[in-house]
């Protein structure tokens, strides 16, 4: 997946999180971000990667986002891999 498409998926995920009154505080608490950070860093590929990291933590969240955004769950994982910090770790 190209980075521009990955950023689009992540921006959609961020918008979805912002619209979820129950999940947004969990996201903010988990990432340490403030609501001002959401606006300021929405175009930052690293922040967008962190957004997808959060979403990928829970299959239920991922499933809800994927269904509501009409995105395949595996495309969310592919988008994460295309953003900074999403490379597979090399343990050797």
In short:
With 92 residues, the chain is mainly alpha-helical. It has helices at residues 3-19, 24-31, 35-41, 45-55, 59-69, 73-82. The chain is built from six helices and no strands.
pLDDT < 50 runs, ≥5 residues: none
Oligomer state of the chains in this structure: single chain
Which structural class do you get from the secondary structure elements? mainly alpha
> In what range is the share of β-strand residues?
under 5%
* Helical content (DSSP H or I, runs of 4+): 55-70%
Topology, number of strands? 0
Order of helices and strands: HHHHHH
On the 0-100 scale, what is the average pLDDT?
Answer: 91
- Which descriptor suits the 3D outline? globular
Q: Write down the Rg.
A: 12 Å
What is the first-to-last residue Cα distance? Answer: 26 Å
For the sheet with most strands, the description reads:
none
Number of helices: 6
Structural topology:
Blueprint: H1 3-19, H2 24-31, H3 35-41, H4 45-55, H5 59-69, H6 73-82
Helix pairs in contact: 1-4, 1-6, 4-6
